[in-house]
């Protein structure tokens, strides 16, 4: 984690999950069995905290069943209008200072977007000044064509593109250490990045531990040991994103 | 607190017109034409008079076209990136291998239409004739419709809100001259929103024969699958079964098997058991699948010896059995 220049303090970071239909943040941040979010005196929602990150997601707001267990398996079957409303509430009715109004707010809010170029990014682009967009892709052409669309969309709504990340770029066989480009070569990705004029922030290899840690609610960066290539790349990416915002 | 109502009734897709203002209550609602949001809308008078409440005029046309389609299968996933479109394409290729059968693929992923690329017809255009829009044919017995054919370039983003997407889906159903089809496969976007509700509503009368749900082994994907199966139950679609994609990787070099996406909670098999749906099979990771998709060729034809091909063909047999074919 980085230091803020000129101070000893680490950045205060929040994670906002705008994937209304498939909210993964509760699981990924180990907050699935957390209590329902509380409200501040003024009626704003208090984010839940884990791994030193403030988190908010549709997943925390789904109605619980009679025995108090979260109904994570219930489908949210909504049309665009209701999705817009939910996005507005998640953006504007959450108090990132937490319970205590005298606490300073966040330095950075990381927003997890749903796939596609529909209601959610449109609503976000129209209502909020977004400082940067990081677009994650996998190597195959079908994924990359959606990256192009994502870039077009962000240009249309005036959101600066911080850069592109290639995920699951290759897998190193544990036994014989041969790299395998399971989802195709990184060539298309790099070509696309230069065609659309976006910076390549990094390439993350396929590491089995990532999905395992995620399923257990622990971000892979915090797992002891772990794949050094993955962690090193991620650290570097974080640094570059931070620098681009300041 | 956020008033979160679990949608008990599936709202009608046709009730919000494309030119409606932001908070349109819907033409079917009791507030139609009378709510504050209606002020200034071109449809206000019609809604207020109650004339808007009535069956969608598109429905009879949809029913007419669909009367010539024997089986309609939806391919769903909860999460994006699990291989839904790739699977739909392989399913299409497999059905089309039988020259006696006519198959159609309808790609209703309007924001991210992948089907044209995967089938190698990305640069084709849609032509229209007096009998309607003509699907793009990959081979004589495999026709495809997708918004991907209608965009000037692959980098054009389709940034549409719900009502406009519904309009296009209705056109795919009523204006496309599919001819007589044995199978119509519908590739959907991830999630449970406008596109899914529209398809279900428009095909309510002509009937959907079933849905195939695709997942990958890890819990984060399975969560979304449970929601997807819940959606199917809510709207009355039969779930033909669950496919677990990216299930294991065999190193071509040393033949060591790795579980890259660990099924930490039992994977697709366990979920299928828990939710009472059929487990159709597990497809292992093969780098040649992605490559074939990028080149627009049939993986099943190119690499018949791959364990992934065997897995696909077994799954497809099971689907046919479930349908009673």
UniProtKB/TrEMBL annotation, chain A:
Pfam families registered for this protein in UniProt: ParA (PF10609)
Residues of the signal peptide = none
Q: Which UniProt keywords apply?
A: ATP-binding, Iron, Iron-sulfur, Metal-binding, Nucleotide-binding
Would you say which domain of life the source belongs to? Eukaryota
Q: CDD domains this protein is in?
A: Mrp_NBP35
Q: What is this protein called?
A: P-loop containing nucleoside triphosphate hydrolase protein
Q: Which family does it belong to?
A: Belongs to the Mrp/NBP35 ATP-binding proteins family.
Could you tell me which InterPro entries the record lists for this protein?
Mrp/NBP35_ATP-bd, NUBPL-like, P-loop_NTPase, YlxH/NBP35
Spans through the membrane:
none
Q: Would the keyword Transmembrane helix turn up in this protein's UniProt record? A: no
Segments forming a coiled coil: none
TrEMBL record, chain B:
Checking Pfam families in the record gives: ParA
Q: Which UniProt keywords apply?
A: 4Fe-4S, ATP-binding, Cytoplasm, Iron, Iron-sulfur, Metal-binding, Nucleotide-binding
Name the segments for region: Disordered: 1-29
- Residue positions annotated to bind ATP are 78-85
Localization, UniProt? Cytoplasm
Gene3D superfamilies per the record? P-loop containing nucleotide triphosphate hydrolases
The signal peptide annotation in the UniProt record is none
InterPro entries assigned: Mrp-like_CS, Mrp/NBP35_ATP-bd, NUBP1/Nbp35, P-loop_NTPase, YlxH/NBP35
Reported function: Component of the cytosolic iron-sulfur (Fe/S) protein assembly (CIA) machinery. Required for maturation of extramitochondrial Fe-S proteins. The NBP35-CFD1 heterotetramer forms a Fe-S scaffold complex, mediating the de novo assembly of an Fe-S cluster and its transfer to target apoproteins.
The family note in this entry says: Belongs to the Mrp/NBP35 ATP-binding proteins family. NUBP1/NBP35 subfamily.
Any idea what this protein is called? Cytosolic Fe-S cluster assembly factor NBP35
Q: Which organism is it from?
A: Somion occarium
